[in-house]
Amino acid sequence: SKSDMSRLRLAAGSAIMKLAQEPCYHEIITPEQFQLCALVINDECYQVRQIFAQKLHKALVKLLLPLEYMAIFALCAKDPVKERRAHARQCLLKNISIRREYIKQNPMANEKLLSLLPEYVVPYMIHLLAHDPDFTKPQDVDQLRDVKE
To answer: InterPro entries, alphabetically (predicted)?
Structure first.
């Protein structure tokens, strides 16, 4: 059934996120697997989108996930539910402030700046948006407007 498929996608996305929290496994997650994991945040099932976003936020706030996972929140720009879009924005802002605060509190983290500075998430956001199956026509003004919002 459709709900079973959604639950399976949630389980798969959550498993990839769990693996990504271990540096030895993070290295072997392919861009395609990362992309499929990210797309769970746009699942057709509202509960799946919500649970996945909560798990993602929880792991990012604890600095357990690599920086590129922050980019997944960019895919929420087209969520049909306004509250979900607002929640994703809040999660993104909170993660940015946590990472900036961590850098201030830990001057020795300078050698890890590439993995901490929120600005470095932009290329990953571009990658996810460029490979989003819902945005197929780059000339479609309505689609571009959706991304902008």
So the answer is: Pds5 (IPR039776)
